[in-house]
Amino acid sequence: MSSIISVKNLRKTYGKTIAVDDISFEVAKGEIFGLLGPNGAGKTTTVECLQALRHPDSGDIHVLGLNAVNQGPELRRRIGSQLQESALPDRIKVWEALDLFASVATKAQDWRILLEQWGLAEKRKASFGSLSGGQKQRLFIALSLVNNPEVVFLDEMTTGLDPAARHVAWDLIRAVRDGGATVVLVTHFMDEAENLCDRVAIVDKGKIVALDSPQGLIASHATEVRVIFSTGETNLAWLKKVSGVKTMSQHGKRVVVAGNGPLLALVAAALVEHGIVPADLHSEQPNLEDVFLKMTGHSATE
Amino acid sequence: MSTLFKLTWVEIKLFIREPVTVIFTLALPIIFLFVMGGVFGNTPDADIYRGVGAMDYYMPSYFGLIMMAIGTVALPVHLAGYRERGVLRRFRASSFSVWSVLGSQLLVSFVIAIAGAILVTILGKAVYSPHWPINPGLLIVAFILGTVCFTCFGFFLGAVLPSTRSAQGVGMLLFFIMMILGGAGPPPEVMSTPMQIIGEATPLHWVIYMLQNPYLGFEWHTSASLITVGITVVSAGLAARFFRWE
Hints:
By secondary structure, chain A is α/β, with parallel strands linked by helices. Helices cover about 30% and strands about 30% of the residues of chain A. In chain A, strands 6-7-8-3-9-10 form a six-stranded mixed beta sheet, with helices on both faces.
């Protein structure tokens, strides 16, 4: 594995607050690497250190073989950056911004193509201040790609995008990766990390608590399957005796049974045996959210 | 290089799209031109206005007034706003150099100052017929020094003032003090001694003397030009010392 980003023992504090507490990881060329965690976990600080926009207190960061501490300007020329908090002048037009940012790049790509790809063609003459949140966000992503970066940092890129635009954005980011770039994605959306990332680092309170592919994380940390159905029957204690069932909870008519093994079939058989045939009986496979809850003890949106 | 000129062109367009700044920087000197011209006309009086006609005195003063409006209000508010809103942060992340960001502002200052000077000249000439600059060569030198001086002064204010609000407050205060006491307001000869002392402590006072002398055909004002250069160097040094992207 040829790593394009290497972070060793990164640490950053703001006064007494420890934002990043000894984080280490590597990202391979051509990967989509995700940093997943709640707000305030230290994800943004981490990627800002990687982009040489902040000085770490200690630790060693190399991106594209460049030291992020003292080779910042050269590093920033070769990466793309979509920041969580930034702005453009309100009265600058969309095309002017793209044209201007393209002029800084040594090997800019045609910004007119980006304009089309990111659904901004109709807005090319609109001023930045008149754009909706989602349009601004798409413009910032387009600006981060205009210099044909070797590594792209996207910090909460789909915040403010509607569901359809999110899926378009995911496809476009995959295309950017297929074009040879490496992508570092900061997100607090489980589905985004699960769908888009090759590997995910779960970050909580300044530390990486787990790091693997989404499937790997799920397989090793969340093995519980849930079987869910509705019934008017209140006495269901016998369900706990079904093989593999670990917990059972009932809220009104909704019943959730959790456990391991071929749970759906066994629970279904037991229900039929007791004359209960719920129409909505289904099972939910574990997902990244379950891993997150298990690893951090809270949900990402808390 | 192409970034510098692209950014300059974008900044000029942004300036024109911001009517408040345009009015403040360009319309205000013109309003004063007509107020002062209406009151004092252009007949020389040996006791005031350095012995020349009021309009002859004010033409180069208003060149300085435009430069001063850029340096105290337009530029600091613009830069502080850029920093406050994260525009500078965005520029830096996309590896804009500090030279292209500040260099474009310097070029924009020149464009505004030249456009303003032409506007003041045309309108003043049409209504009050002041004479043309007697020593245009040295006037151009003074014009360049004055514009660079107030641009650097603007960089300094924009670097140390943390927000748009503070830049507006401090900038307006400096603007009015300099305008009234620094040589673009009432004739210096009628002001009380304390007013004159405060006036002489303002950069505008010296920039106006530096501009007026070649315009009026007086000898080049060496001390005024040296003070202007000094203010430029100190402002630029402080701006470089305190400039922050975020």
